[in-house]
């Protein structure tokens, strides 16, 4: 499975592509950070991110995209920029029919380091070890993008099992409701026949 991991942001947007092998084996294929100037207009910044992501999608052809889920922070403008960048990326994936999964920072940290409260240095260290990289990926946005991709590779089998279980449960609920509706209709028909 080829996974594109993205750490969205307006100033720095981390992009990575990894490929999962057997078991927990993961190989890094590419990593980069898209930078946009803070004094540029918002639409131009989003366009720059969109153009870079479109190029990566066309070049690497990932099977799935893993994006960091935006969560509440003290700085509202940072959250808004991150959410807008994530939206542009999700839209580009949707146009190509590529599944998008969002992972919280604590999910990513827990998957990669075993500690949902790990700091950036610990995440970078573990990403370097897991991918057997010669040097630590920098800046932190690059390491975070790789961590997101690794997290999805390792969580994907569980996510697939959960989706299958939810689909089965929904199918069983529909069958049960149909059975109840049929029994209710039979009971009403029997009551109507008894009155005659």
Automatic annotation (TrEMBL):
Cofactor binding description: Binds 2 Mg(2+) ion per subunit.
List of catalytic residues: 7, 68, 141
Binding-site positions, Mg(2+) 1: 7, 141
EC code(s) of this entry: 3.1.21.10
Molecular-function GO term, any one: magnesium ion binding
Cofactor requirement: Mg(2+)
Record-level GO BP terms: DNA recombination; DNA repair
Record-linked PANTHER family: CROSSOVER JUNCTION ENDODEOXYRIBONUCLEASE RUVC (PTHR30194)
Protein name: Crossover junction endodeoxyribonuclease RuvC
GN (gene name): ruvC
């Amino acid at each position: 499975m080829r996974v594109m991991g993205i750490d969205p942001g307006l100033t720095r947007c981390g992009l990575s592509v990894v490929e999962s092998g057997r078991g927990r084996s993961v190989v890094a294929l590419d990593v980069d950070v898209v930078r946009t100037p803070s004094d540029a207009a918002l639409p131009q910044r989003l366009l720059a991110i969109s153009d870079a992501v479109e190029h990566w999608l066309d070049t690497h052809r990932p099977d799935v995209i893993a994006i960091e889920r935006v969560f509440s922070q003290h700085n509202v403008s940072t959250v808004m920029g991150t959410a807008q960048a994530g939206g542009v990326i999700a839209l580009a994936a949707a146009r190509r029919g590529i599944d998008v999964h969002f992972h919280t920072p604590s999910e990513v940290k827990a998957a990669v380091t075993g500690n949902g409260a790990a700091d950036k240095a610990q995440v970078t260290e573990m990403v370097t070890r897991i991918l057997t990289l010669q040097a630590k990926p920098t800046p932190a946005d690059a390491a975070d993008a790789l961590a997101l991709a690794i997290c999805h590779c390792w969580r994907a089998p569980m996510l697939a099992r959960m989706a299958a279980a939810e689909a089965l449960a929904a199918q069983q609920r529909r069958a049960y409701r149909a059975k109840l509706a049929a029994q209710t209709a039979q009971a009403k028909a029997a009551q109507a026949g008894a009155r005659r």
